[in-house]
């Protein structure tokens, strides 16, 4: 098959994707489109290779993968270095003979057959589900991976992983030490309750209307601002109140001007009557 991976436009409307941080969205797109990704969505990739492709450090990669596994979006086998995108088969737009042949060829190379079972079960296409089930059943009966072969493969992979990890550590030495300490990858917003927001606004003599408007504004963004998580909303609250008061003053000025003009007009009418 051609070396490209298409991403369905429905990706951006998915409710799960909408709630992800920009960094997690980028990472998920990487899993769908990187050079090692296959048509079936199950492929070998080491954590250090992911670091090299994305620019994220090893700790950040582990955290993101853990989040995606908890959300049932991917599987990862640290023994075989295989990663599976659970819903990958839902978005195959064409299913002709070339695609089926490609899927069959890729499935035969997969070491962790449980991944075949999981991905197949999440397909919405009966033909694909049957194809995955057939491969899983055959492999489960034959148990084609003999213990010695698996041990040898794992040993080689571990050695490769260690070498790549050493290279990663060497590169890290030449990078600023705090490059990832404040990264949004490891930070989540500190989401306050409505009561807490009102308590803070009340302490600065602000109204409930202000507190409600503030809460709704940032709750709609998931408590992120310009891609960064909001850790301490108090600093934003003071600025919000100041801006609110300025806008109220601006609204009052045209009103006062209008009242002055009206009063002037009425005085002029009275003056004309007494002439």
How would you describe the overall organization of this protein?
The protein is built from eleven helices and five strands. The protein has 275 residues and is mainly α. It has two domains: 9-173, no CATH class; 194-273, no CATH class. Mean pLDDT is 81; it is low at 145-151 and 175-182.
SSE arrangement:
Elements lengths: L14 H5 L2 H12 L8 E3 L2 H8 L3 H13 L3 E4 L4 E4 L11 H13 L3 H9 L4 H17 L4 H27 L20 H10 L4 H12 L4 E2 L2 E2 L3 H41 L2
Helix pairs in contact: 3-8, 5-7, 6-7, 9-10
Strand content: 5-15%
Please estimate the helix content.
55-70%
N-to-C terminal Cα separation, in Å?
Answer: 97 Å
Q: Strand arrangement, largest sheet?
A: 1-3-2
Structural class: mainly alpha
Helix count, per DSSP? 11
Low-pLDDT ranges: 145-151, 175-182
| Secondary-structure element string | HHEHHEEHHHHHHEEH
Rg from C-alpha positions?
29 Å
Q: Characterize the largest beta sheet: strand count, sense, and whether it forms a barrel.
A: 3 strands, antiparallel
The shape, in one word, is: elongated
Outline:
The chain is mostly helical.
List keywords for this structure.
5 strands, elongated, two-stranded antiparallel ribbon, 61% helix, 275 residues
